[in-house]
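Q: What would this chain look like folded?
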Amino acid sequence: MKGPVFPLLLVIFISGCAVGPNYKKPAINTPTVYRGLTPDEAGKTDAKSLADEKWWDVFQDDQLKELIKTALQQNYDVRRAASRVLQAQALLGITRADQFPTVSGEAAALNLRNSRQGIFPAIDTNTNRVGLAFDWELDFWGKFRRATESARASLLATEWAQREIITELIANLTGAYFQLRALDLQLDISRRTLASRQDSLRLTNLLAQGGATSMLDVRQAEQLVFTAASEVPLLEQQIEQEENFISILLGNNPAPVSRGKQLTEQYHPPTVPAGLPSSLLERRPDIHQAEQQLIAFNAQIGVARAAYFPQISLTASSGYQSSALTNLFTSPAGFWSFGSTLAQPIFTGGRLRSNVRFAEARQQESLLFYQQTVQGAFRDVSDSLIAYRKTQEFREQQKLLVDSVQDATRLSHLRYTGGATSYLEVLTNDTNYFAAQLGLVQAQLNELLSLVQLYKGLGGGWQQ
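A: My prediction, written as structure tokens:
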């Protein structure tokens, strides 16, 4: 029975125990429903969420899809995140290697000649040596296992950070694309308005030359022209700058950007399924990242506490040593050694205690950050749900305003042509119509942007 018992005792001795707290998932106060849902939506218990859909199903503009695909391949932030994952993988390998023994080989050949000393002749000495060295610090207190646990959690945190960057990239690129299409539409409205006002100004000039109206009407017509004309270069500037921003997101130098559907043709559902709040914890990359960071710092407490206990190391070496190379691998030339060391900290000036306190404080901060991240995620979803519903309502009212002001502008032109009113009425209504049109475009844009933020807030976008 002695044969099997000794290896078993050796394994138990080597494995030892792991000091420090084991990780326990923190309790989270999860709301039953998201704030921002209508009473009808809140009454539903459907677990389906918009975030469960892939980004190419949510955003159905083919040109936008191509831009996103390009950005995922070329964006520098995404590529840097991938490099950080490789770094974390390498650090895990470095840390995990401490759990295993190191074995090294050596080979040496030394020829030494001592000079003649008095009556003693010169001596030639030859030494040839080949051997192996073994060194192993036993992880009896779990210091290396806790360090590996921390490094593994750091790797997972880095991977979730990479997914968060992908989510941010898709949201930023989609938002910038919608912003670009809104600027395109506003520029088109401005140019059409400018052309219409220039025609009106020519007509007013003819009327003034014929004595049918005054120069005041001409000046007021010029104000309308100059107002529309001033919008054109400003919008053109914003369009080119937005194209530059999109180009950088694509990993390209500033260049023009291809367009797809018009802003008014972009798909957006009237209602969006939000899913269950509890599922948000499983979808949001930033929540996963924060939790893995908490796991890493929790494991570091074990590393710090293990420093209180003795360090036990095993060392061994064996090989051959001979003055004659031909006799190097013979039995008489063999040598070996085996030993162990135990080092126990006795006085460190409070360093070990402070190191434990530091690790515990970092774990506590990480716990608070995790809880804060969860609360922030619930707020993001709530804000986005409210924004999406209210921007829809605002856009509907803005459309009614545009229709009303458009008809008022038509009537004011008819009244002015018939001599029933001054050009001031035309000026007022035309100005209001132009502003209402631009406001409607902004309302349509805000509705789409709130959809993008809702999709991101629910944790969608990183699934590939």
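DSSP finds eleven helices and four strands in the chain.
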